[in-house]
Amino acid sequence: MIDLFYAPTPNGHKITILLEELGLPYRIIPINIRKNDQFLPSFLATAPNNRIPAIRDPDFPGGPLNLMESGAILTVLAETHGKFLPSAGHARAQVLQWLNWQMGGLGPMAGQNHHFNQFAPEKIPYAMKRYTDETARLYGVLNKQLDGRDYVAGDYSIADMAIYPWVLLHERQQMDMTQFPHIVAYLERMAARPAVQRAYAEGAKFDWDASLTEERLQTLLKQA
Predict the structure, then answer these.
(1) What is the dihedral of CA 122, 208, 204, 105, to 10 degrees?
(2) pTM for this one?
(3) 20 to 30 Å CA-CA from 190: which of 5, 170, 199, 215?
(4) Residue in 100, 11, 78 with CA at minimum distance from that of residue 51
(5) For 150-179, what is each residue's pLDDT tens digit?
């Protein structure tokens, strides 16, 4: 069984979507990033960058695997189980291209958008405009790519699992969705997938009031 160190953020949702799509058994280890659980030593042993998500897979081919970074987790699990990432050629290149577009563009820019528009203690108009405008530009890129396609790289893939949780937060990002009709349709298609529904149901169970201690985390990990 895979241990998933998790909070219900866009990056966390990516991994539960894939695990649900693959039908793999997994156990959520809740990491409350609002209460600094991500700095616990036993978590850092798996994820030295102190960010969720991360996984521990004791049954990984060749020996137990600890892995951090959502893009790496998506790629490795999809490759290992032979689904949602083509094995070679142009189709594989397209999926990896759009996965990395999310990792290097949409995620960081939308994340800064969230920070400066929602959470920054000081309202900085330049930063708010910069990241809102760049998020809108990236939505325009995605909207164009989805014109005539159900999914971003053709067939449903890990690229969609990475992108969907970020564009689902369009209201928080101050996006005018009347400008992006293909994304609106895409959101509906993604939300209709049973595995996506199950993944978000897992996220709804997360207790943001609870927090781990190092002792409790060690106990959980020994129970694997």
Answers:
(1) 40
(2) 0.96
(3) 5
(4) 11
(5) 999 999 999 999 999 999 999 999 999 999
Supply the Cα-derived Rg of the chain in whole angstroms: 18
Please state whether the peptide bond connecting residue 41 to the residue before it is cis, i.e. omega within 30 degrees of 0.
no
Closest CA to 41 of 222, 204, 212: 212
* 76-112 per-position pLDDT tens digit: 999 999 999 999 999 999 999 999 999 999 999 999 9
